[in-house]
Design a protein that fits this description.
It contains five helices and no strands. The chain has a domain of about 80 residues: lambda repressor-like DNA-binding domains (434 Repressor (Amino-terminal Domain), Orthogonal Bundle), CATH 1.10.260.40. The relative contact order is 0.11. It is mostly helical.
Length: about 110
């Protein structure tokens, strides 16, 4: 069990989403009738790492997630992350002016 530190605490919504991702990966594995051992061997990782992915653990590196997705033929799905960014596009479209600095005062004129 990993130590509960600030580095592995996630907002509740993010932790729930990660659990959903893990469950979806597990279901994809089961639909393909593959064992965790087969996925681990093909993804060149350990069975506990595959189990951690399927449990949506945040301590697993994204590289392991992608290798497991690659083994399942789903690695291209990662390309959809942040592909559609409506908030970012709205902010970009606003073209908010940058804050301008006040002119520097000339110390020699203040007598």
């Amino acid at each position: 069990m990993s130590k509960d530190t600030f580095g592995n605490k996630l907002p509740r919504a993010v932790a729930q989403d990660l659990k959903i991702v893990g469950e979806q990966i597990r279901l994809a594995r089961l639909r393909r009738n593959l064992s965790m051992e087969q996925i681990a061997e093909r993804a060149t990782c350990s069975v506990p790492s595959v189990a951690a992915v399927e449990n949506g653990k945040s301590t697993v590196s994204i590289g392991i997630y992608i290798r497991v997705l690659y083994t399942l033929g789903l690695h291209k799905d990662i390309l959809h992350i942040a592909a559609d960014d409506p908030l970012g596009r709205d902010l970009q479209d606003l073209k908010l002016p940058h804050r301008k600095r006040a002119p520097k005062s000339n110390a020699s004129t203040c007598n």
